[in-house]
Amino acid sequence: MIKNRTLVIIPAYNEEKSIAHVIGEIQHYVPTADVVVVNDGSKDRTAEVAKWAGAKVITMPFNVGIGGGMQTGYLYAQRNGYDYAVQIDADGQHNAADLPKLLKAAENNDLVIGSRYVTKTAYSSTLMRRIGMIFFSNVVTMLTHQKFTDTTSGYRVANKKVIDLYCNYYPMDYPEVEAIVYLKYKGCTLHEVSTEMRNRMEGESSINAFKSVYYMFKVTLSLFMNALRFSKARV
């Protein structure tokens, strides 16, 4: 039985067609959790639908991106005394049926990542994405001396220690990979749990081939710069 207070954070931009289903799944598998949707400047009815489905809604005045949206959610979790904060996508790709086992693993770890590659799953990605995932897994493993298989996964559970750290610092642009390195340099324990990932229920991903190349370049540069900065801070 999950006794601690859990907040599920859903960053959302123009997800009116899938958001109610995502909230409903969470309420089914973890009925004790509270759900907050960070409506990141959506131009559709995302906020209205999320409220109707039973979530609290924080509406940003303009689009701040995934990093700004998630840090807003962590600040909400900290200020309202939650023990765990869950990050889950609004497009329905993450299966809430996996959430209880992620929360169970979080009892003994500071951050738990839902991974598509710990064991073989039905998930398949494009060649470009697969190359990027393997590349970042190798870079992060080298920088942290811990093997990670799915550094870009946005399905995560953070405990109070991580919530506090993320309230002080959270990468703004394509943050998932950098956030792992940051926590390792802060002495946190991280663990991956096998999860399934589905195709998007509605709409299209904002990550195209051009953005994938930009993403790899930008994040790689940030990883090495932050690794140098955090390692100096520990001396």
TrEMBL record:
Gene3D superfamilies: Spore Coat Polysaccharide Biosynthesis Protein SpsA, Chain A (3.90.550.10). Residues 8-131 form the Glycosyltransferase 2-like domain. GO terms for molecular function: transferase activity. Coiled coil: none annotated. Keywords: Transferase. Pfam families: Glycos_transf_2. GO terms for biological process: protein N-linked glycosylation. This is Glycosyl transferase family 2. It comes from Paenibacillus mucilaginosus 3016.
